[in-house]
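Onboarding guide, step 5: your first structure request.
Type a short instruction followed by the sequence, for example:

Predict the 3D structure of this protein.
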Amino acid sequence: MLSLIVAKSENGVIGSSLKEGLLWNLKDDLKLFKKHTLGKSVIMGNTTFKTLKTNLPSRTCYVLSKRPFRVPVLHENQYATNDLDFAITSSLKENKEAVIIGGREVYSLALSKYKIDKLYITTVQAYLEGDILFPEIDLNNYDLVKEKAFPKNERNEFPFIFREYKLKN
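The system replies with structure tokens like these:
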């Protein structure tokens, strides 16, 4: 099963070339990210990998890069490649579910080439400035499986809604 997980603002912003890392502080969403990626293979671009600042324990990580030999290896279950097909094929041999975790180029490529079976989408209920946008997805091809709203509080800088979608048969 191939999945995709993303957190985006109401206006589709997932990042900014002017600021490294997340544009929001949502501890409850980070717990959801962990829940939906732990024990699975994750596939990400090199820029996303650089913003992590640490490895992702208990996950097999595939880092896509135009120059994979320059990607530092942080742990034994990390692989660098310039081939999304290889990353997905290898991921699915190791785990029942592989999860695309970003960034924009990897999302765009995966959505244009592959059938994404599951979507985990966090919508931050704010309009934020940024120049890195999440690509459009036709949600008419998916059934909403789960939806949960989280309030703004001491753990979450903004309110947000987490939705899980499954590809229609």
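Each response can be followed by summary notes, for example: Residues 27-37 form the longest helix (11 residues).
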